[in-house]
Amino acid sequence: MEVQYFHEHATVATAVGLKKSPAVDFSATIGTPGIAFGAEASYVTSSGEFTKYNAGVNMTKPDSNASVVLADKGDSLKVSYLHHLNQLNGGAVVGEIARKFSTNENTLTVGCSYLVDPHTLVKAKLNNHGNLGALVQHELRPKSFLTISGAFDTKALEKTPKFGLALSLKP
Q1: DSSP reduced 3-state for 67
Q2: What is the pTM of this model?
Q3: Which of 10, 19, 93, 104 falls between 20 and 30 A from 166, CA-CA?
Q4: CA–CA separation, 57 vs 162, rounded Å?
Q5: Distance CA 94, CA 115 (A)
Q6: What is the domain extent for residue 20?
């Protein structure tokens, strides 16, 4: 069973499983078009434990977007920034720094997207661990897409790269 409440500047949602020992999910957001705060949590009644809790803040400007998210029960922090490049025909650049506190691991990811034409999008991303990913997405007709993607580890070129093909058709 799910209950949702939508307001112009706030949203609350709660979901409860209809079982003997249900899980309870809760999420809430509050904000304006320029800044928003959100949180979510999952509680398992059988064990009496929270299995998930996350919180974040997002700031939006006409040409950029920045967010900070504390996730994984407070074990990871992600800071990201996206900047739209109007001179590149709908392109954008993005950067993300992720920190996992339990393992002392940091990951820096940079990426970009470029609109080749009104129906074709190209994206690429690279992180400091050497993982490179790219995709080409073409809109065959309105709401129907063909996507070709690939990824490989630049620090282990002997490994086989991964390739993907997706077709999404909507009537």
Answers
A1: strand
A2: 0.81
A3: 93
A4: 34
A5: 15
A6: 1-61
Do residues 95 and 69 make contact, with C-beta atoms less than 8 angstroms apart?
no
Residue after which a domain boundary falls, among 36, 61, 86: 61
DSSP assignment of 91-141 equals EEEEEEEEEETTTTEEEEEEEEEEEEETTEEEEEEEETT-EEEEEEEEEEE
Q: Which of 9, 31, 61 is the last residue of a domain?
A: 61
CA 125 to chain centre: 14
Q: Which residues contact 104 (CB under 8 A, 6 or more apart)?
A: none
**Same domain, yes or no, for 123 and 153?**
yes
Number of domains forming the structure of the chain: 2
Is residue 101 located within the same domain as residue 137?
yes
> CB neighbours (10 Å) of residue 118?
9
